[in-house]
Amino acid sequence: MSVAQEVVVEKEKDMGTKLINPNDPSSYGCEILLEKSTLAQMKDKSFPTDARIITYIVDGEVYQDLTRCRKVVDLFDLYYDKYGPGSVQKIDFGYGTINPKNWGYTTKNSKKKK
């Protein structure tokens, strides 16, 4: 890392801003549930209701991912930064029916009381 890059990183740390990494969806506040999958896989009802289907183009190939994100603009920013301008084609709602608060939650196995 050059001296100029170190100074920029230090300034960003001082200002309280975080560094964004296009290869890390969590730095955008996003989670990729299914990557480069088919529509049949995404129609599974066991996904949360806040899941979105994003359609994008990379090297002339059309792909679809199922993702979750706080805001749609964060999702767009993730794919725009990762694949470049003109790659994002469409963002649609997913087919999930599970409440996002309860998605991924497992109950504890409680012991019987005597």
Order of helices and strands: HEHEEHE
Class by alpha and beta content = alpha+beta
**In what order do the strands lie side by side in the largest sheet?**
1-3-2-4
By DSSP (H or I, 4+ residues per run), the number of helices equals 3
Helix content: 25-40%
How is the biggest beta sheet arranged? 4 strands, antiparallel
- Low-confidence regions: 2-15
User: Please, what is the average pLDDT?
Assistant: 82
- Work out the strand percent: 15-25%
Shape: elongated
Distance between the termini: 63 Å
Rg from Cα: 19 Å
Count the E strands.
4
Notes on the structure:
The chain has a domain at 19-93. It is 25% helix and 25% strand. The chain contains three helices and four strands; from the N terminus they run αβαββαβ. The protein has a four-stranded antiparallel β-sheet. A hairpin with a 2-residue loop joins β2 (51-58) and β3. The radius of gyration is 19 Å and the shape is elongated. The model is unreliable at 2-15 (pLDDT under 50).
Describe the structure in brief.
This protein is of the alpha+beta class and 114 residues long. The protein is 25% helix and 25% strand.
Give short descriptive properties of this protein:
114 residues; 4-stranded antiparallel sheet; 25% helix; 3 helices; alpha+beta; elongated; disordered N terminus
